[in-house]
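User: C-alpha cells for this complex, please. No commentary.
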Amino acid sequence: MSARRVAVLKGGRSLEREVSLRSGANVEAALRRLGHEVLALDVDQHLVRTLRAERPDVVFIAMHGKGGEDGTVQELLEILGIPYTGSGVIASERAMDKVAAKAEFQAAGVLTPPAYAFSQAAFRELGAAEALPDIEARLGLPLVVKPAKQGSALGVAVAHDPGEVPAALMAALAYDDRVLLERFVPGRELAVSVLGTEDPWALPVVEAVPEGREFYDFEARYTPGITRLHAPADLPAEVAQEAARVALTCYRSLGCRGFGRVDMILDAESRLWVLELNTIPGMTDTSLLPRAAEAAGIGFDELVARILDLAALGL
Amino acid sequence: MALFPEPIPTAIESRPAQITPRDAARYDVRFASRASSIVSSAMRDLMALAERPEIISLAGGFPDTDSFPREIFAEVMSVIERGHVAGALQYGPTEGLLELRERVVEIMAHEGTQARVEDVMITSGGQQAIDLSIRTFVDPGDIVIAEGPTYPGAVPSLTTYEAQVVHVPMDDDGLRVDLLEETLDRLAAEGRRVKLLYTIPNFHNPAGVTMSLERRERLVRVAHERELLLVEDNPYGQIRFEGEPLPTLYQLDDGAGWVIYCSTFSKILAPGVRVGWVVAPPPVLRKMNLGKQGADLCTSTLTQRFILEYLRRHDWREHVARLNDIYRSRRDAMLTALEEEFPPEATWTRPRGGLFVWATLPSFIDTTDLIARAIEREVAFVPGEAAFRDGRGRHSMRLNFSYVSEAEISEAVRRLGQVVNDMIETYRALSPGSP
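Assistant:
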C-alpha cells in the first residue's frame, strides 16, 4: 500500500478532549510506523482553513464526543471532499444521540433497556418532574440517568431510590440539555467491536470487569489496572455468536461505516441489552477496540491500517 | 571553515513511538504501588480544557509576573554576566547559597519570625519544601492531618507517599483547633498514629481564610502537649491587603522544635525561579538534606544567584507592595462581582490577602459536573473536590483573582453566576416540593 498524506484530527473543545488526545497519539504513531506522512491537528476554529492549505489525502478522525463524533466534522469533510475514517454524517448523528439510537435498535428488533428522555425545558416549562414517580414505577429502581449526547460515561449516575433521582438528573443535565432515565440492568459489561462497511464483521467480544464499581465509569475506563479486560470474553459460544449478531444488527441499523463498538449488558438470564453504539471507539492504551482486534490476531498498526483503508465520503 | 556553525534544526522529525496500546500493559504490572494509586479522573480531564486560550480561567494559582520590572530583570542578569557566570552555572551546596539563606532569615524577620541561618535550607520552590516534609516523615498508611479543604498541590505528594489524610474543618478563623483535638482523641482511641499536621495559617489556599491569633496559640499549645509535629506552609503571608501580620506558628513555637516552616519566593518575586525554603531543627534538616540530594542535588544556582543579586540591589518590599495593590483591586472586583452575580444561596470567603476565594454552592450542585457547563461558557475554576482526599468539597469551588484583569474577573464571575442560577432553576423544577 502506498504512503499517503494523513491528517489526524484530535482534541478540540469536547469534554472528551484528553481522551481524544490519547487516542490520537496512538493513531499517529501507528500511521508513522506504517510509513504515512502524518499531519496531527488539534482541532480549533481554523480547521477548515488548515485542511484547505494542507490538502491531506485522507483524514483519520480520532475525536470523541461533541463536534468530532456527532457528524459535525464529518459534514465539513464532506464539503471539503476529503475522505475520512468511520461513519458518515447521519450515522454519527444518530449514534451520538442515545435516544435516536435506541429507537433504531428497537425497530431492528434489538433489546435495549426501556427508557424515557426529557429535555431540561420539559422539567422547567412543563413540570415533567411530576411524572417522575410514574417513570420510577414503570422502569423500576435503580435507574440510570445519563446525558443524551455524551461519551466516556461522563455525567452518568445511578439512582437507587426516588430521593436520588433529582441529584442524578442534575449531574446529567450539567453535560447535556437532554437526559435519559433508563432501567438499570445488572449484568456483565460486554463490548463488541465491528470492522467493515459493505460486509462488516464482529471482532471477539471483550468483557470489562471494573473492580469494586457499580458500572464502567470514567475512572474505570481510563486508569490502567482498575478494570480487568477479558478478550475474548469467557462466554458460551452461542452467547458470543448472539452478541456478534446483535452488534452487527445495530451497526447496520444506523448505517455505520468503517468501524464502531457496541456496548451491551449480559443479564443473568443470558439476555443481551444494548446500551449504545460508539462510532469512534477509543484507541487509548486502556480502550476496548484495540484489545478486541488483538484477540482476533490484528495488531494495533494493522487495525489502524484497516480503518484507514475504509475511509470514504458519503453521508 | 565556516564562520558560524550550522544552525541546529528546530523541527526535529522524531522517529515514531514504538509503544502500542498492547505494549502499554507491560508497565502496568511493574508500576510501584505509589504510582498506581494515582488514578485518571474526569475532573483532571475536564480541567485540562481550562488551558484553552479562549477560556477565562480562574482555575490557576498564577501570580502576576507582568508587573516585574523588565529593567530590573536586565540589570540583575547583567550583574550575573559580569561577575558570577561560572558560579551560576556550577553545582551548589544542597542547602543553598549561604548568603541567600541569610536573606531568607531577614525576610522572615520582616514578618516577625526569628530563624537561624543554619536551620534554613533552600528548596526548588515551596513545593519541594512540602514534598520533603512529607517524604521525610510519612510511611505508607501514616496519618497526616490537613485542613479541609487543603492545598490541592499537596495532594500528589500525600498520594505518592501513601499518606492517610484526615481533614479537619475550618471556619472564618481558620483551622477548628477544638475539632482537631477531638480528632486526635478519636485517632488515639483507635490506636492510629498521626505523623504530622499540614497547615496554611495565612490566606489559606484554597479557603481564603486566616487562622486567628487565639487559634494559633492554641494550636501550638496542642502541638506541645501532644507532641504533634506541625508543617506550617506560609507562601502568602506577605501577600496582605489589609490588617497587621499575625505571628507565625514557627515564632509561637519559640524554638521548641515542633514546627517545620515552608515558604517561597514564588509569590513575593516570581514562581518561574523555583526557589523556596524550609526551616527545620538540625536533626530534621539533615534528613531533608539527604532527601534533597536524591531529588535534585541542589536548587538551581542560576536562579538562586538571580534572587540574591536582586535582593542586594532592590527592596523586595516595594515589589510586594506593588503586587498587593494589584491583587487588592482584583480581589475587590471579584467580591463585588460575586455579590452581584451569585445567588443568595451561595456563600464565599472574603480573603484579606493571598490569591483565592472559596465559594460554596447549594448542596444539590456538584462543582465537578458544573465544570462542563462552565467550559461551555468559556470560564473555568477549580472544583472543590481537588482540595480533599476523601471525596468531600463537591459543592465548593476555588476562584483565583491574581492572574486575570479586573474586567475579566467580572465577566468570568458573571458567566459563572448565570450557570449557577440556571442550575438552581433546574433543580427547583426537578423538586417541585422543595422551597
